[in-house]
Amino acid sequence: MLRKPTSASRLEILDWLKDPAAHFPPQRHADLTEDGVTVRAVAAKLGVSRRVAGTHLGLLARLGLLRTKRIRYRVYYRRDEIRIAEVARMFEKGW
After folding, report:
1. CA–CA gap between residue 29 and residue 74 (Å, rounded)
2. Any bridge partners for residue 38, and if so which?
């Protein structure tokens, strides 16, 4: 699963989600910072289909780098800062 976690698109997504309010428009039913962003918002920002954006977000979520939250009929994604710090420490130690 860790074969390609560092694609440019996935790194961009992780970077944008550090400060989602600066990179995504406001959402009707969720707070960008507290709840996260939808696949649709990420797809629009990347300029790709929702399916491609969903693949990127799904991989990042399975790796534990993103948390998901369902509100109404949508899934929202936000960074899991604790897990990201753990992974960064593993790579710093030469994992």
Report:
1. 9
2. none
Residue with tokens 């593993």: 90
Tokens of 75: 């899934």
Alpha-carbon torsion (41, 28, 62, 18), positive or negative: positive
Q: Which residue in 59, 55, 60 sits closest to 84, CA to CA?
A: 60
Percent helix / strand / coil, the chain, rounded to 5: 50, 15, 40
15-70 pLDDT, tens digit each: 999 999 999 999 988 999 999 999 999 999 999 999 999 999 999 999 999 999 99
Encoded amino acid at 40, one letter: R
Q: Cβ(46)–Cβ(53) under 8 Å? A: yes
Give the sign of the dihedral formed by CA 76, CA 80, CA 15, CA 93.
Answer: negative
Q: Amino acid identity, residue 76?
A: Y
